[in-house]
Amino acid sequence: MNRSDAIIEVDGVTTVLDGHVIHRGLNLTVYRGEVMALIGGSGSGKTTLLRLLLGLEVPQAGSVKIFGHPLGRCAARDLERVRYRWGVLFQHGALFSALNVFDNIALPLRELNSVPDSLVKPLVMLKLAQVGLKPADAFKRPAELSGGMVKRVSLARALILDPQLLFLDEPTAGLDPDSAKQFVRLLRRLRQELGLTVVMVTHDVDTLFAVVDRVAVLAEQRIIACGPLAEVARLPHAFVRNFFLGHLERCAEDDLRRFRLSLDDTSDDGGVPALLREAEETHH
Ligand SMILES: Nc1ncnc2c1ncn2[C@@H]1O[C@H](COP(=O)(O)OP(=O)(O)OP(=O)(O)O)[C@@H](O)[C@H]1O
Ligand SMILES: [Mg+2]
């Protein structure tokens, strides 16, 4: 990969929260079009790293560049422009319980205020279909949704501004195996259709095997390894060994390919009707 294809460049970052050093001299590069997984023990600083990438946390030292813009040092207007090129699905869902599904998904559009009111409805309904939900779901409250539906609505909201970059923090955590599988299939499809770059925190091995190009391991306050799944899974490191325990034999290229193809076979992820897909293309 060429350095100029880098979408995210984290260079020598040190993060201190409440007097505790969370990251020390952390480096990470994410390239255009890849799905990068971030793994690491609980409390190792994965969510904090995402917050740094979103500009919600400021590092004590080092720099974070997204789309070539140095966060924290670019003008507020520049940051605003960058901000609308990414979408985020937070670890704890974070739908507004007082708003129905429609208004939750529409929120970023309304905040941005650059889309005429008449366009809000078709755009929201398009995203709803894109994540495999029915038009009638638009009028439900978050409390009336299943866990899998909450994730889909959150994903629709993350995608409403047509971002190039998507951050996902534990997107399949708390889902039953079937819903997790459907969600992963949906991600694979969206990634193919929208050409997204994805940074995803996950501790779910199946999700890794299904969608990820490279894996970064956060341990000892930095990224101790970053590379293709098959390479990272064989690292002689206690966390990595435990993480991939019983899954090493699935890492062979052929097995991975077979597993991924088997996911594409079934189409119960609420695929997007062709008509809607065309509408989406025209919108771009
Ligand atoms: N706002 C904060 N103030 C002080 N300490 C914090 C804050 N947010 C997180 N921390 C601490 O930073 C460390 C890393 O937290 P973080 O949420 O990034 O971990 P994580 O890797 O995402 O864990 P998990 O897998 O459980 O989600 C933890 O020790 C946590 O207690
Ligand atoms: Mg976390």
Entry summary:
It is built from eleven helices and ten strands.
> What is the helix fraction of residues, given as a range?
25-40%
Q: What compounds sit in this structure? A: adenosine-5'-triphosphate, magnesium ion
By secondary-structure content and strand pairing, the structural class works out as alpha/beta
Give unreliable regions as ranges. 269-280
Question: What value does the Rg take, in angstroms?
Answer: 19 Å
Order of helices and strands: EEEHEEHEHHHEHEHEEHHHH
Number of helices: 11
Percent of residues in beta strands? Answer: 15-25%
Strand order of the largest sheet: 6-7-8-3-9-10
Number of DSSP-assigned strands: 10
Global outline: globular
Please state the average pLDDT score. Answer: 87
Distance between the termini: 27 Å
Largest sheet: 6 strands, mixed
Give descriptors for this structure.
284 residues, alpha/beta, 10 strands, 40% helix, binds adenosine-5'-triphosphate, binds magnesium ion
Model description:
The chain has 284 residues and is an alpha/beta fold. 40% of the residues lie in helices and 23% in strands. It contains 11 helices and 10 strands. The chain has helices at 46-53, 76-83, 101-112, 117-130, 147-159, 177-194, 205-211, 229-232, 238-243, 253-265, 274-283, and strands at 6-17, 20-31, 35-39, 61-66, 69-70, 86-89, 165-169, 197-201, 214-219, 222-228. Strands 6-7-8-3-9-10 form a 6-stranded mixed sheet, sandwiched between helices. A 4-stranded antiparallel sheet has the order 2-1-4-5, covered by helices on one side. β1 and β2 (20-31) form a beta hairpin. α3 crosses α4 (117-130), α4 (117-130) crosses α5 and α6 packs parallel to α7 (205-211). The chain is globular, with a radius of gyration of 19 Å. Mean pLDDT is 87; it is low at 269-280. Adenosine-5'-triphosphate binds at residues 17-18, 22, 40, 42-48, 91. Magnesium ion is lined by residues 46-47, 91, 169.
